Task: structure prediction
Amino acid sequence: ISNELILAIETSCDETAVAVIRGGKEIVTNIISSQIETHERYGGVVPEIASRQHVESITLIMEQAIREAGINFRDLSAIAVTQGPGLVGSLLVGIVAAKSLAMALDLPLIGTHHIAGHIYANQLVHELVYPCIALVASGGHTELVVLESEGVFRIIGRTRDDAVGEAYDKVARTLNFPYPGGPHIDKLAQSSEEEIVMPRAWLDANSYDFSFSGLKSAVLAAINSAKMKGETPRQAALARGFQASVIDVLVTKALRAVRAEGAKQLLLCGGVAANGGLRAALTDRCAAEGVPLLIPPLVLCTDNAAMIGAAAHLKYKRGEFTSLDMKAEPGLSL
Ligand code: KG4
Ligand code: ZN
Result:
């Protein structure tokens, strides 16, 4: 059993996060400093403000992580950081901090893909069996990824427009919920007895791609037409219809992919993995079809640095290090 300590940094969006991971498995500390309160009043993440806040917090959060871990900077074996995708100004802050530490401590630097992080969050709590399939559902991504073997990814489906979390946030905003709106819509949907049936975007018969902008527009149109008629929109019934459409498409495509690829497990990850309706529906369908389903605990679903440490550890084992002139890659592919 390895016990090297990796300090991981994640600043791709609006969370300043630092974690220390032992042996790629044990979370020694996992600090997430959220900027939600700041961005809430703008109804979404403001990139300029996000990067300035990262600058203000990153050093303090790194020091806090080391203190809470009860270790010394000198005890670390490597420094990991999210290289992309994400907001370039936000990524840069984490990358500069990681490079400085790596240089000062003479440690290897490991640039990590944000989505690989979301996927390998599962590794912190489960054993992965290959080939498996990950359904990545977050505010920035909606992807079906085949993991052929450790660290070998093949994307078979992606969204052609909005990410699923983004669609949640936009619908929520129209119903006057604060950012991020996903949890509010989830709660509303689960509280409703009624459902206004919404369209499902299956796309071509064999496609694993997704599209959520038509669904989002259908919900927004229903809300606006009610408002124009001076009626109160049937918020809960709309939320339920929206959520039912999202879940139906995600679950159906994910399970079709599992069968077609002969996957041994289905992994759910990304912020939308927090969705109660989605978790329940996937749990039921996977149980019915005998497919092992892995979902990380909630804190490891939304953006965090522990997942970056987990993904980085795979590269550490293989000695795959990143040069100190590494750049932020806002559009980095898996
Ligand atoms: O993975 P994440 O923290 O950040 C990105 O990498 O995008 O995901 C954040 C997204 C937001 O769009 C948020 O509204 C959504 O996850 N989300 C939810 C729920 N909790 C968070 N969406 C639906 N239902 C939820 N319970
Ligand atoms: Zn994310």
Summary: The pocket of zinc ion (ligand 2) is lined by residues 114, 118, 138, 270, 303 (CB under 6 Å). The longest strand covers residues 26-34. The chain has two domains: 5-120+301-318, 129-295.
